[in-house]
Amino acid sequence: MRHSIGLLAGICLLSEASTVLARSVVDAAGRQVDLPAHIERAAGTAPPPTLLVYIVAPELLASVDTPVESSFFASGTKFLLPEFKKLPAVGGWHGAARGANMESLLALDPQVVIAWRNSFVMEPVLRSFEKVHVPVVFVEEDRVADIPGAIRLVGKVLDREARGDALAKDAERRISQVREKVALIPEDKRLRVYYAVGPDGLMTQFGDSFHYDPILMAGGKSVFPGDQKTMGGLERISLEEILIRNPEVIVTPDAEFFASVGKDSRWAGVKAVRDNRVYLVPRDPLNFIDRPPSFMRILGIQWLADVLYPDGDADLVGETISFYRDYLHVAISAEEARTLLGR
Q1: pLDDT, tens digit (0-9, with 9 covering 90-100), for 54-98
Q2: Domains, the chain, ordered by start
Q3: Integer CA distances (angstroms), 250 to 4, 263, 272, in order
Q4: DSSP-based three-state secondary structure for 153
Q5: Any signal peptide, and if so, which residues (predicted)?
Q6: Backbone conformation region of residue 63, classed left if phi is above 0, alpha if psi is from -120 to 50, else beta
Q7: Using an 8 Å Cβ cutoff, are 141 and 48 in contact?
Q8: Three-class SS of 226-272
Q9: pTM for this model (two decimals)
Q10: What is the C-alpha to C-alpha distance for residues 302 and 271, in angstroms, rounded to an integer?
């Protein structure tokens, strides 16, 4: 009997110790999430949240949702840590990563999952992880302005608060610089920008879509205002509609369209094409603007603001070198930075 009482007391003490050691955070959905005292393995539900773990604490990533060989990443990129490229890909819950393999993910024993707070995708994620009792922390990162807060939250979750705060402050500095530059441009002088997606350039994002947000942040005006209807947000547009709206600038992530549009007589009537103001979005290791809408948008708005309104003031090469060092954990030369920026 005494032995049983002693054993029970020991279990209670252990439970109390575990409770003391455990901690909690309030996530971007306003949920209080209980976490282990010490996290050694984390995962994400889609590229944007997974990549937040990568920039804050790459050594803690247990898996990736999308393989590096996918179209999200530049082919053969050398601007990611070798360890990241070797991580098992287990799928995700939305976007190109959709099709999560829960068995494979749980076999890696993640102690926390970082997920995207987005009305299109939250419920399936919660349903999946509530069944297996893995804590899920939602981060807000739809808009560029959300990214510093998302970085801070991930830093807190992963017990890397100093690292998260330093990156968040740097992101805020970069955003502030762009905002200050754009604020000096009168509204009627801001350029009308068409975001051309696909090899024919006839898909786009409407102006209220979070996918288009970096272009607005950099001082562009959408030629196709409207609400985002789906998570992906892409809308099919006719060339006739583009000719009517006559954008002053075209920005595209598609190398095939970029290479062909200037030679295509059907586009010759578009002001951006006539004025040679069609720009290819940098995308090594990831698209600077969109797809995935990741932390790279911080550097992306700096690049795009300089493209739209060049003034010679920005040290974009230096900013790119420091960004790749601090966020991507890789050292690049000035020549590599200029190549990345298309200069």
Answers
A1: 999 999 999 999 989 888 899 999 999 999 999 999 998 876 556
A2: 22-175 (3.40.50.1980), 186-311 (3.40.50.1980)
A3: 75, 15, 6
A4: helix
A5: 1-22
A6: beta
A7: yes
A8: CCCCCCCCEEECCHHHHHHHCCCEEEECCHHHHHHHHHCHHHCCCHH
A9: 0.91
A10: 24
